[in-house]
Structure prediction request, 321 residues.
Amino acid sequence: SQLAALEQSAARIAIGKLAVIVVGEHGVGKERFAERIHEMSPRRGSAFVRINCAAISEPLLEAEMFGVEQHNKPGLLELADGGTAFLSEVDQLPQGLQQKLLRVLEDASIRRTGSTRGRPIDVRYIASTDKDLNSEVEASRFRRDLYFRLAGASFTIPPLRDRRDEILPLAEQFVASAAGPLGRAFLFTEEAKQWLSSHAFPGNIRELRNACERAVLLATGAMIEEHHLSIDDPARRQSGQRFRSSPTIPPPPGIMAPTAADMPSQVRATVAELEKQRILEALERCAGNQTRAAEMLGISRRTLINRLDEYGIARPRKREE
Prediction:
């Protein structure tokens, strides 16, 4: 597979300390790919520290990354000493922090906020982005010198729609993982397999995992059918049709919605809680940006807004970046 070929190249890069940039759409598995590089490296016994460069405002992010001397609080980069720091959505790093990060890479030491003393650190850096960083550099949104420091090696993860041969094995893996704790086992019907092979998966692996976990909860027998997976597939709706602002998820055409007898109340509650948690996680990762959160979840922005209303989640304002 394409991913296996990329991993073979990554295995050769992993043995050194070269910084790496992983590029790809939301949900393609950039973080997991970074984890594999760490696991294949001599640093695998040390920490793999995740830093989301878009999650919080600049002052808070600075304190999280670099630490605070006044409170004797080490930052995430300091905690990664001996291991790997994963800089998620590095293109969103504010300009001021780009300069501070560059200094850390050049000096191999870190100064906590409020301190004049540098602390030596030994860190391998892996950054991820869904942007073309060359274009970001040309537009003066990303420092050229920092880009060349981070781009020792670069890997582009193709979207799931370009890796059709991997979809069914991944789906079977996700179903087995979700069904195991329930003491159940499932198979896909032929119609479900056809849906998996033809769906565009704009949310990539994250959307596939969500669909499989939801299907495990919705299936009443041992077979996962197409409507268990495609329950909120906007591609099934007619072009131009308005999204319904309904407290329930609309079933696909020709499929009867599960009744109370089909779906026990505790299962319905579990489905709702699972979906609510996914929405909250996506909003957190996207700094409150609803359009990006919807893309990450593989649903339309209107559907996301309907879910926010349904679950009583306050409409967030996009946080400062």
In short: The radius of gyration is 22 Å. The chain is about 45% helix and 10% strand. Confidence is low (pLDDT under 50) at residues 234-268. The chain has two domains: 2-158, 161-310.
